TrEMBL record:
Pfam families noted in UniProt: DUF87 (PF01935)
InterPro entries, A to Z: HerA-like (IPR008571), HerA_central (IPR002789), P-loop_NTPase (IPR027417)
SUPFAM superfamilies noted in UniProt: P-loop containing nucleoside triphosphate hydrolases (SSF52540)
Stretches assigned to the Helicase HerA central domain: 130-216
Name of this chain's protein: Helicase HerA central domain-containing protein
């Protein structure tokens, strides 16, 4: 739990062409802690009960509020080594200051696990960009993504299908192979540049094969 005095500002601040909200939900922050920086994400911002009425505008009254926020702690960064460590080895203390993380720092931390001395210029997949900084692309190596079991979860309309289509498009750039099981026929538009495997017949000629559809209802 932290105090976020700038969260009550009506408009965000701008430093060197970068928008700084100073306490918005979803914002990434860095907490100073002696010789270790703690990286986290603001997941909740609220007002104490005593300040809830002071946010209403009044003539001649500025109304000082003290919003508080809850931060999800994600990683440690020892300042001496500069190596991002997953999890936490230390925790914030009272009076530690909280800073908004620069977009390039967020990118650097997100891609830290795939940087090695052996691969100076690895093949990467461009997954997304930061919401307010389209020029800050977040990339990940195929080994980090496909080297383990991965699930894309979410409710209706949150972009699950878009994410899968993005992964397929990115892997195609590097001539990689992807097997896509599509029981609902949602990705039928990939027919122009995807190879469809047909079942039945023999391998003597293309005309001897038949494209087979597996009904979604049979999966239940």
């Amino acid at each position: 739990i932290v105090n976020l005095p700038l969260a009550a500002n009506k408009d965000p601040l701008v430093y060197h062409a970068n928008i700084v909200h100073g306490g918005a939900v979803g914002e990434y922050v860095v907490i100073e802690n002696e010789d270790i920086a703690i990286f986290g994400k603001i997941i909740e911002v609220k007002l104490p009960e005593r300040d809830r009425l002071t946010v209403e505008p009044k003539l001649g009254d500025t109304g000082i509020t003290h919003p508080i926020g809850r931060i999800q702690l994600l990683a440690n960064i020892p300042l001496q080594s500069g190596i991002v460590e997953s999890g936490l080895s230390v925790y914030p203390r009272l009076a530690n200051r909280v800073f908004s993380a620069h977009p390039e720092m967020i990118k650097w931390i997100a891609e830290a696990s795939q940087r090695t001395e052996e691969t100076a210029d690895p093949i990467t997949l461009d997954l997304a960009h930061l919401p307010e900084y389209k020029e800050t692309i977040i990339s990940i190596t195929p080994e980090r993504l496909f080297g383990c079991h991965c699930a894309i979860l979410g409710t209706t309309g949150e972009g699950k299908s878009w994410t899968i289509a993005r992964l397929v498009a990115e892997t195609k750039k590097h001539n990689s192979k992807v097997i896509l099981f599509d029981p609902t026929g949602e990705y039928y538009t990939l027919k122009d540049y995807a190879e469809h495997v047909s079942l039945g017949g023999k391998d003597e000629s293309f005309n001897n094969t038949e494209e087979v559809v597996f009904p979604y209802s049979n999966l239940v």
